[in-house]
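Notes on consecutive records. When two proteins share a document, each keeps its own sequence and its own token line. Never mix them. Below: protein one.
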Amino acid sequence: MVRIRALLPTLPPSERRVAEAAVADPAGVAAKTISELAADCDTSETTVIRFCRAVGLKGYPELRIGLAAAAGIEDAASSTLTAGGDIGPHDSLADVVAKLGYADARAVEDTVAQLNLTLLERAVDAVVSAGAVDIYGIGASALIAADLHQKLHRIGHRAAAWPDAENALTSAALLGRGDVAIGISHTGATPATVTALAEAHDNGARTIAITNFPRSPITDVADLVLTTAVRETTFRSGAMASRIAALTVVDCLFVGVAQRNFSRTTRALERTRSAVQGARGR
């Protein structure tokens, strides 16, 4: 379900109808034959098979099994609370808190479950060996970029976060081979972030994208793509669960980098902590 939602906006219309049916009623689709689903979606069996392959499955039987499992998970969650649903105008504050808590926890769990560890390892390798690390993010993504900058900087890596479009672009123009640029965009289509990452890529820097959509524009200029898995609900677009999921990816990347040279990381953390505590005591 996570991968289907992520790919849905980029699928051809006929495959998108199949995806929308699967997202709307996973249990119902799991119970249908391929002929029934094709007819319901006004498409062909061949298109259904293409859709299965587009989301990384071998064929329709595997899709049915996956949808049945997803439906079971959602049923189990809904039996304890009406989580997963959108926040409505008549929800109590307790309902709002329960739904937000469920959605945020689910975003972290789904993100971790689908995170490509091979690509994450390569991203860690790139950052560890980088001469300089640029991090681009606009709006809510700027908060995530600032978080990664602070973490890397504190353990002694040359890193800078650029929340301004022109500053990001000018910094990207000065990167080169041996440097790394990281672009953070939930949609993967934020123009300023995509443009800055493209500039860094053209200048020879290793580029990494963190996004919820693996076929979005930012992936075209990224050497490595780390994906989140978020289903936004009411009042959440681009700011809540997506932020939590992206911070999870950032934490995984940072800890992977910090772990590579454990003694250096420990010394850097001790020195920075000592400096801050000393300043507070003056």
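Protein two starts on the next line and is unrelated to protein one.
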Amino acid sequence: MNAILYHIKLLRPLNVITSGIAVLIATAILEELDNVHILLLTATIVMLYTAASNSLNDALDHEIDLINRPDRPIPSNNVSIQSALFLSLIFFSLGSILCLQLPDMAKTVGIFTAIPIMIGYCTSLKGKYLIGNLAVALVLGMTFLFVGVSHGDVSPMLVPMSLAFGLTLLREIVKDVSDIEGDQFSGLRTFPIVFGMNWSVRIIISLCVLIIFSTPIPYLKGAYGPGFIISLFIGVELPLLVIIFMFLKNPSISSATYSARILKFSTLMGLFSIYLGTL
């Protein structure tokens, strides 16, 4: 039983569930919740790809996790690297088989674009400053492109794509700060390692300010209703202000670790804000 639980933990079930919720929100924005077949397909595919990517990432990052996250299943010797790689292969394969039932453009986005970027990130891009961050942000943003092309309606997905991309890019740089000790030990060249803490804090605060001022634009242009701006302020703007305050007061690994958790919540809240704005 413990072995099964550790293998489930390897997949990061909270991240997997969150990816499914993101697909659900995207489908709701498109007003396609009654299209249950496409909804179930897209949600299952995205969740399988997320689980596969998490498993592959942990298999390849086992040495880094010995320092940054020693309690994870592989560095704690509860899951083998071979098992993680096998699970990754299975989940990528299952997701791709299901993807074959979707329109051609969805196959292109899912199989021929998202998977190569995810594998490329895990194998070689992670250690390259900003390029790795942009790759992860691009994959998260592509979730909404994937849902849009699956339903044949991409334009309503442009704002959620942009929001997910911006918040994910910010979170990835913040996570690089929190992981700097293990990354440095493993010879990675992330932004904080190459340019130092001061420049990392400047980039983080600049991105926070950019997102704070740009996210209300769709409301000001009349694209979304008052539900959008109210929930956006509570779920995105205020947390970003908290992150700015924390980094100004205490630019440290602990601030980055806490900020990364906040940003995971804010990304989901931002998407929910867009849905509320369409009501």
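For the record: The chain has two domains: 1-153, 154-279.
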